[in-house]
Design a protein that fits this description.
By secondary structure, this protein is an alpha+beta fold. It has 3 domains: 5-64, RNA-binding S4 domain (Structural Genomics Hypothetical 15.5 Kd Protein In mrcA-pckA Intergenic Region, Chain A); 85-169, Pseudouridine synthase (2-Layer Sandwich); 174-329, Pseudouridine synthase (2-Layer Sandwich). 21% of the residues lie in helices and 28% in strands. The protein has helices spanning 18-25, 31-39, 85-94, 123-126, 158-169, 248-255, 308-317, 321-329; strands at residues 5-8, 44-45, 61-64, 95-98, 102-107, 139-140, 149-155, 174-182, 189-201, 204-210, 218-230, 234-241, 285-293, 299-303. The strands form 2 sheets. Strands 4, 5, 6, 7, 8, 9, 10, 11, 12, 13 and 14 form an 11-stranded mixed beta sheet that branches. Strands 1-3-2 form a 3-stranded antiparallel beta sheet, with no helix packed on it.
Protein backbone atom coordinates (compact mmCIF):
# COMPACT_ATOMS: atom_id res chain seq x y z
CA UNK A 1 0.00 0.00 0.00
CA UNK A 2 1.51 3.33 -1.10
CA UNK A 3 1.55 6.51 0.98
CA UNK A 4 -0.33 9.72 0.18
CA UNK A 5 0.02 10.68 -3.49
CA UNK A 6 -0.69 13.93 -5.34
CA UNK A 7 -1.49 13.23 -8.99
CA UNK A 8 -1.67 15.93 -11.64
CA UNK A 9 -4.67 15.92 -13.99
CA UNK A 10 -3.50 15.60 -17.60
CA UNK A 11 -4.74 17.69 -20.57
CA UNK A 12 -6.71 14.85 -22.16
CA UNK A 13 -8.64 14.40 -18.88
CA UNK A 14 -10.22 17.87 -19.08
CA UNK A 15 -13.82 17.87 -17.90
CA UNK A 16 -13.75 14.23 -16.76
CA UNK A 17 -15.92 13.32 -13.76
CA UNK A 18 -13.85 12.55 -10.67
CA UNK A 19 -15.37 9.07 -10.26
CA UNK A 20 -14.45 8.32 -13.89
CA UNK A 21 -10.92 9.65 -13.26
CA UNK A 22 -10.55 7.22 -10.32
CA UNK A 23 -11.97 4.35 -12.39
CA UNK A 24 -9.17 4.88 -14.92
CA UNK A 25 -6.33 5.39 -12.42
CA UNK A 26 -7.53 2.95 -9.71
CA UNK A 27 -9.85 0.42 -11.40
CA UNK A 28 -9.93 -1.75 -8.28
CA UNK A 29 -11.44 1.04 -6.12
CA UNK A 30 -15.23 0.63 -5.89
CA UNK A 31 -17.72 3.51 -6.03
CA UNK A 32 -18.78 3.03 -2.37
CA UNK A 33 -15.26 3.21 -0.92
CA UNK A 34 -14.51 6.25 -3.09
CA UNK A 35 -17.57 8.05 -1.70
CA UNK A 36 -16.42 7.35 1.87
CA UNK A 37 -12.97 8.79 1.08
CA UNK A 38 -14.56 11.92 -0.39
CA UNK A 39 -17.00 12.41 2.52
CA UNK A 40 -14.19 12.12 5.04
CA UNK A 41 -12.03 14.59 3.06
CA UNK A 42 -9.27 12.08 2.42
CA UNK A 43 -9.59 12.64 -1.34
CA UNK A 44 -9.27 16.30 -2.31
CA UNK A 45 -8.74 18.30 -5.50
CA UNK A 46 -6.40 21.31 -5.20
CA UNK A 47 -6.77 20.99 -1.44
CA UNK A 48 -10.56 21.31 -1.43
CA UNK A 49 -13.33 18.84 -0.69
CA UNK A 50 -15.23 17.57 -3.73
CA UNK A 51 -18.03 15.17 -4.71
CA UNK A 52 -17.93 12.23 -7.12
CA UNK A 53 -19.57 14.24 -9.92
CA UNK A 54 -16.98 17.05 -9.75
CA UNK A 55 -15.24 17.72 -13.09
CA UNK A 56 -11.45 17.77 -13.04
CA UNK A 57 -9.36 20.15 -15.14
CA UNK A 58 -5.80 19.95 -16.48
CA UNK A 59 -3.15 20.91 -13.93
CA UNK A 60 -5.32 20.25 -10.88
CA UNK A 61 -3.78 18.05 -8.18
CA UNK A 62 -5.76 15.11 -6.84
CA UNK A 63 -4.86 14.02 -3.30
CA UNK A 64 -5.03 10.24 -3.05
CA UNK A 65 -4.68 8.64 0.42
CA UNK A 66 -3.14 5.20 0.95
CA UNK A 67 -5.42 2.66 -0.77
CA UNK A 68 -5.84 -1.11 -0.59
CA UNK A 69 -5.75 -1.21 -4.40
CA UNK A 70 -2.86 -0.48 -6.73
CA UNK A 71 -2.80 2.17 -9.39
CA UNK A 72 -3.15 0.89 -12.93
CA UNK A 73 0.46 1.13 -14.06
CA UNK A 74 0.10 -0.69 -17.34
CA UNK A 75 -2.62 -1.85 -19.64
CA UNK A 76 -2.14 -4.63 -22.17
CA UNK A 77 1.38 -4.54 -23.54
CA UNK A 78 0.41 -4.11 -27.17
CA UNK A 79 1.86 -6.74 -29.40
CA UNK A 80 3.06 -8.84 -26.48
CA UNK A 81 -0.39 -9.60 -25.08
CA UNK A 82 -1.20 -12.86 -26.87
CA UNK A 83 -4.92 -12.05 -26.89
CA UNK A 84 -4.28 -8.94 -29.01
CA UNK A 85 -1.08 -9.83 -30.86
CA UNK A 86 -2.72 -10.50 -34.24
CA UNK A 87 -4.82 -7.33 -34.05
CA UNK A 88 -1.77 -5.30 -33.05
CA UNK A 89 0.26 -6.58 -36.01
CA UNK A 90 -2.56 -5.93 -38.50
CA UNK A 91 -3.19 -2.41 -37.14
CA UNK A 92 0.52 -1.58 -37.31
CA UNK A 93 0.56 -2.50 -41.00
CA UNK A 94 -2.31 -0.06 -41.64
CA UNK A 95 -0.69 3.00 -40.00
CA UNK A 96 -0.18 6.03 -42.28
CA UNK A 97 0.43 8.59 -39.50
CA UNK A 98 0.90 8.43 -35.75
CA UNK A 99 1.49 11.04 -33.05
CA UNK A 100 0.50 11.60 -29.42
CA UNK A 101 -3.11 12.56 -30.28
CA UNK A 102 -4.00 11.03 -33.66
CA UNK A 103 -3.53 7.79 -35.57
CA UNK A 104 -4.49 7.56 -39.25
CA UNK A 105 -5.02 4.15 -40.82
CA UNK A 106 -5.35 2.92 -44.39
CA UNK A 107 -8.30 0.58 -43.83
CA UNK A 108 -8.40 -2.45 -46.14
CA UNK A 109 -11.53 -3.13 -48.20
CA UNK A 110 -13.70 -5.78 -46.55
CA UNK A 111 -12.76 -4.99 -42.94
CA UNK A 112 -15.64 -3.53 -40.92
CA UNK A 113 -15.09 -0.41 -38.81
CA UNK A 114 -17.66 -1.46 -36.19
CA UNK A 115 -19.43 -4.67 -35.21
CA UNK A 116 -22.76 -5.79 -36.64
CA UNK A 117 -24.56 -8.80 -38.03
CA UNK A 118 -22.17 -11.14 -39.80
CA UNK A 119 -19.11 -9.18 -38.62
CA UNK A 120 -16.44 -11.34 -36.98
CA UNK A 121 -13.65 -8.76 -36.83
CA UNK A 122 -13.79 -4.97 -36.76
CA UNK A 123 -11.48 -2.00 -36.22
CA UNK A 124 -13.28 -0.78 -33.08
CA UNK A 125 -12.70 -4.09 -31.30
CA UNK A 126 -9.14 -4.39 -32.63
CA UNK A 127 -8.24 -1.02 -31.09
CA UNK A 128 -8.17 -2.75 -27.70
CA UNK A 129 -4.66 -3.84 -28.75
CA UNK A 130 -3.60 -0.19 -28.42
CA UNK A 131 -5.03 0.34 -24.92
CA UNK A 132 -2.79 2.76 -23.01
CA UNK A 133 -1.49 2.57 -19.45
CA UNK A 134 -4.68 4.21 -18.13
CA UNK A 135 -6.82 1.50 -19.65
CA UNK A 136 -8.11 3.80 -22.43
CA UNK A 137 -8.30 2.48 -25.95
CA UNK A 138 -8.15 4.80 -29.00
CA UNK A 139 -11.53 6.07 -30.24
CA UNK A 140 -13.22 6.12 -33.63
CA UNK A 141 -14.27 9.61 -34.75
CA UNK A 142 -15.84 8.75 -38.13
CA UNK A 143 -16.73 5.71 -40.23
CA UNK A 144 -16.04 4.04 -43.57
CA UNK A 145 -18.27 1.44 -45.19
CA UNK A 146 -17.00 -2.11 -44.81
CA UNK A 147 -16.25 -2.44 -48.55
CA UNK A 148 -14.62 1.02 -48.81
CA UNK A 149 -10.86 1.24 -48.28
CA UNK A 150 -8.72 4.19 -47.26
CA UNK A 151 -8.14 6.93 -44.72
CA UNK A 152 -9.61 6.32 -41.26
CA UNK A 153 -8.85 8.78 -38.44
CA UNK A 154 -8.53 7.49 -34.86
CA UNK A 155 -8.22 9.62 -31.70
CA UNK A 156 -5.66 8.49 -29.14
CA UNK A 157 -7.19 10.42 -26.23
CA UNK A 158 -10.57 11.57 -24.97
CA UNK A 159 -9.71 15.23 -25.58
CA UNK A 160 -8.52 14.56 -29.12
CA UNK A 161 -11.72 12.61 -29.83
CA UNK A 162 -13.85 15.59 -28.76
CA UNK A 163 -11.97 17.97 -31.06
CA UNK A 164 -11.89 15.63 -34.05
CA UNK A 165 -15.57 14.71 -33.70
CA UNK A 166 -16.43 18.42 -33.58
CA UNK A 167 -14.41 19.00 -36.78
CA UNK A 168 -16.45 16.36 -38.61
CA UNK A 169 -19.72 17.67 -37.17
CA UNK A 170 -18.90 21.27 -38.14
CA UNK A 171 -17.64 20.15 -41.59
CA UNK A 172 -14.19 21.58 -41.00
CA UNK A 173 -12.78 18.57 -42.81
CA UNK A 174 -12.21 17.81 -46.47
CA UNK A 175 -12.48 14.17 -47.55
CA UNK A 176 -11.52 13.12 -51.07
CA UNK A 177 -12.40 9.74 -52.57
CA UNK A 178 -11.35 7.99 -55.76
CA UNK A 179 -13.85 5.77 -57.56
CA UNK A 180 -14.33 3.95 -60.84
CA UNK A 181 -17.82 4.22 -62.33
CA UNK A 182 -19.73 2.75 -65.24
CA UNK A 183 -19.88 5.07 -68.25
CA UNK A 184 -18.69 8.68 -68.39
CA UNK A 185 -20.71 11.54 -66.83
CA UNK A 186 -21.88 14.16 -69.36
CA UNK A 187 -20.55 16.96 -67.14
CA UNK A 188 -16.82 16.85 -66.43
CA UNK A 189 -17.51 18.11 -62.89
CA UNK A 190 -20.71 18.79 -60.99
CA UNK A 191 -22.52 19.03 -57.67
CA UNK A 192 -25.05 16.36 -56.66
CA UNK A 193 -27.74 17.46 -54.20
CA UNK A 194 -30.52 15.08 -53.07
CA UNK A 195 -32.44 13.87 -50.04
CA UNK A 196 -31.60 10.36 -48.82
CA UNK A 197 -33.60 7.97 -46.66
CA UNK A 198 -32.80 4.53 -45.26
CA UNK A 199 -35.11 1.62 -46.04
CA UNK A 200 -35.06 -2.02 -44.99
CA UNK A 201 -34.77 -4.59 -47.78
CA UNK A 202 -34.33 -8.36 -47.97
CA UNK A 203 -30.59 -7.70 -48.45
CA UNK A 204 -30.31 -5.41 -45.43
CA UNK A 205 -30.58 -1.63 -45.03
CA UNK A 206 -30.29 0.38 -48.22
CA UNK A 207 -30.29 4.11 -48.90
CA UNK A 208 -32.40 5.65 -51.66
CA UNK A 209 -33.03 9.11 -53.03
CA UNK A 210 -36.10 10.61 -51.34
CA UNK A 211 -38.36 13.61 -51.77
CA UNK A 212 -37.86 16.76 -49.73
CA UNK A 213 -39.95 16.46 -46.59
CA UNK A 214 -40.17 12.67 -46.68
CA UNK A 215 -40.13 11.18 -43.19
CA UNK A 216 -36.56 10.39 -42.07
CA UNK A 217 -34.90 11.93 -45.14
CA UNK A 218 -31.61 13.82 -44.79
CA UNK A 219 -30.10 16.30 -47.24
CA UNK A 220 -26.91 15.07 -48.93
CA UNK A 221 -24.44 17.02 -51.09
CA UNK A 222 -21.50 15.59 -53.04
CA UNK A 223 -19.10 16.96 -55.64
CA UNK A 224 -17.27 15.07 -58.35
CA UNK A 225 -14.88 15.60 -61.23
CA UNK A 226 -13.66 13.23 -63.93
CA UNK A 227 -9.92 12.54 -63.65
CA UNK A 228 -9.58 10.12 -66.58
CA UNK A 229 -11.67 7.80 -68.75
CA UNK A 230 -11.24 4.38 -70.34
CA UNK A 231 -12.90 4.90 -73.75
CA UNK A 232 -16.55 5.75 -73.00
CA UNK A 233 -16.89 2.64 -70.89
CA UNK A 234 -15.51 3.71 -67.49
CA UNK A 235 -14.58 6.89 -65.65
CA UNK A 236 -12.19 7.54 -62.79
CA UNK A 237 -13.84 10.09 -60.52
CA UNK A 238 -12.57 12.22 -57.69
CA UNK A 239 -15.50 12.59 -55.28
CA UNK A 240 -16.00 14.81 -52.23
CA UNK A 241 -18.89 14.34 -49.80
CA UNK A 242 -19.88 17.69 -48.26
CA UNK A 243 -22.30 15.91 -45.94
CA UNK A 244 -21.61 12.53 -44.39
CA UNK A 245 -24.67 10.36 -44.97
CA UNK A 246 -24.60 6.56 -45.03
CA UNK A 247 -23.53 5.22 -48.47
CA UNK A 248 -23.78 8.80 -49.78
CA UNK A 249 -21.25 8.62 -52.62
CA UNK A 250 -22.47 5.19 -53.70
CA UNK A 251 -26.10 6.33 -53.93
CA UNK A 252 -25.17 9.62 -55.61
CA UNK A 253 -23.11 7.79 -58.25
CA UNK A 254 -26.14 5.60 -59.01
CA UNK A 255 -28.41 8.67 -59.00
CA UNK A 256 -26.47 10.31 -61.87
CA UNK A 257 -26.56 7.06 -63.82
CA UNK A 258 -22.95 6.01 -63.20
CA UNK A 259 -22.84 3.45 -60.38
CA UNK A 260 -19.51 2.52 -58.81
CA UNK A 261 -17.94 -0.61 -60.24
CA UNK A 262 -18.30 -3.70 -58.04
CA UNK A 263 -20.79 -2.12 -55.60
CA UNK A 264 -22.73 -5.07 -54.10
CA UNK A 265 -25.69 -2.87 -53.11
CA UNK A 266 -26.02 -0.16 -55.74
CA UNK A 267 -24.48 -1.46 -58.97
CA UNK A 268 -27.47 -2.38 -61.13
CA UNK A 269 -26.65 -4.54 -64.13
CA UNK A 270 -27.28 -2.98 -67.55
CA UNK A 271 -28.05 -5.48 -70.36
CA UNK A 272 -26.36 -3.13 -72.82
CA UNK A 273 -23.13 -2.99 -70.81
CA UNK A 274 -20.64 -5.80 -70.30
CA UNK A 275 -18.61 -5.92 -67.09
CA UNK A 276 -14.95 -5.59 -68.19
CA UNK A 277 -12.96 -8.80 -68.09
CA UNK A 278 -10.11 -9.02 -65.61
CA UNK A 279 -11.64 -6.55 -63.13
CA UNK A 280 -12.56 -7.91 -59.72
CA UNK A 281 -16.21 -7.47 -58.75
CA UNK A 282 -15.29 -5.57 -55.58
CA UNK A 283 -16.26 -2.03 -54.65
CA UNK A 284 -13.99 0.46 -56.42
CA UNK A 285 -14.30 3.26 -53.84
CA UNK A 286 -11.31 4.49 -51.84
CA UNK A 287 -11.00 7.25 -49.23
CA UNK A 288 -7.92 8.81 -50.82
CA UNK A 289 -7.22 11.96 -48.76
CA UNK A 290 -8.28 13.80 -45.65
CA UNK A 291 -7.56 17.35 -44.51
CA UNK A 292 -8.57 17.87 -40.87
CA UNK A 293 -7.63 20.23 -37.99
CA UNK A 294 -5.09 18.62 -35.66
CA UNK A 295 -6.06 18.71 -31.94
CA UNK A 296 -2.70 20.37 -31.20
CA UNK A 297 -3.21 23.07 -33.85
CA UNK A 298 -2.53 23.32 -37.57
CA UNK A 299 -3.95 20.86 -40.07
CA UNK A 300 -3.29 17.20 -40.76
CA UNK A 301 -3.26 16.17 -44.44
CA UNK A 302 -2.95 12.45 -45.13
CA UNK A 303 -3.09 10.43 -48.36
CA UNK A 304 -3.71 6.67 -48.62
CA UNK A 305 -2.44 4.46 -51.46
CA UNK A 306 -5.00 2.48 -53.45
CA UNK A 307 -5.88 -1.09 -52.37
CA UNK A 308 -4.51 -3.99 -54.47
CA UNK A 309 -7.75 -4.71 -56.38
CA UNK A 310 -7.98 -1.08 -57.53
CA UNK A 311 -4.27 -0.92 -58.48
CA UNK A 312 -4.87 -4.05 -60.57
CA UNK A 313 -7.81 -2.36 -62.32
CA UNK A 314 -5.93 0.91 -62.95
CA UNK A 315 -3.04 -1.07 -64.48
CA UNK A 316 -5.39 -3.16 -66.60
CA UNK A 317 -7.12 -0.05 -67.98
CA UNK A 318 -3.88 1.90 -68.43
CA UNK A 319 -5.03 4.75 -66.18
CA UNK A 320 -2.24 7.16 -65.22
CA UNK A 321 -2.05 6.45 -61.51
CA UNK A 322 1.58 7.62 -61.15
CA UNK A 323 0.78 11.09 -62.47
CA UNK A 324 -2.21 11.50 -60.12
CA UNK A 325 -0.13 10.37 -57.15
CA UNK A 326 2.56 12.93 -57.99
CA UNK A 327 -0.10 15.66 -58.12
CA UNK A 328 -1.31 14.59 -54.65
CA UNK A 329 2.18 14.95 -53.23
CA UNK A 330 2.65 18.51 -54.50
Amino acid sequence: MAGIEHIKVEPDEAGMRLDRWFKIHYPGLGFGPLQKLLRSGQVRVDGGRVKTDARVQPGQMVRVPPLDVDAKKTGPIAGHDLKHADDYDLLQRMVLHEDDKVIVLNKPAGLAVQGGSGVTRNIDKMLEAWTNKKGEKPRLVHRLDRDTSGVLVIARTRGAAQKLTAAFRERDTKKTYWSLVRGVPRKHEDKISTWLVKEATADGDRMRVAKHGEDGADHAISYYRVLETAAQNLAWLEMEPYTGRTHQLRVHALHIGHPIIGDPKYFIEDPNWDFPGGIQKRLHLHARKIDIPHPNGGRLRITAPLPPHMVQTWNLLGLDLASAERDDEE
